[in-house]
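Q: What would this complex look like in 3D?
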Amino acid sequence: MCMKSDILKVLYTEEEIQQKVKEIGQQISEDYKDKNPIIVAILKGSIIFMADLLKNITIHTETDFMAVSSYGESFQSTGIIKILKDLSCSIKGKDVIILEDILDSGNTLSYLKSLLEQRGPSSVKIVTLFNKPEGRQVPVYPDYIGFNIPNEFVVGYGLDYNEKYRNLSFVGVLNPEVYKKA
Ligand code: PRP
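A: Here is my prediction, written as structure tokens for the whole assembly.
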């Protein structure tokens, strides 16, 4: 079955996303031009964004990854954050950029930002490609936002439903029939 047939409507095309990622990459390159930031991608949703963003950053960077659980296999936030994979190096004295595909309730980033701030970094900033302001349960203020999106269930470009649809090159609204059936 074709993945695209499960999509109700396209929110952002591949071209629109690539253009936005390019702009964020240029902005980060400018803002950190005398620094060597460490970009921490939060698995798994941010991997496609991470790969494309890195290609648009023109300064030296380091990279690392963390994995946390928030939604599990459901589509509602539980507010419970568990570290599944921690950083592989120290961030003491470093400029940290946390990279997320989506900011929704804020539970994940609120927890992660304070956790990383306790480890003595020089700075911690947040980049999210998609921001759902209506979903917010705790305050989080990202430093770089790609797109503000409506409170709909979106998939593609790293965003999943039950681990599927991450490999769509665009972002779209999932047809509710798909999760009603489940
Ligand atoms: C998504 C996203 C964030 C989190 C945001 O991850 O990547 O980590 O949800 O939601 P919040 O603001 O409500 O906390 P998810 O748990 O779906 O895991 P995944 O990236 O592996 O798909």
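A: To summarize the key features: The two ends are 16 Å apart (CA to CA). The helical segments are 14-31, 47-55, 107-117, 176-181.
Q: Very helpful, thank you.
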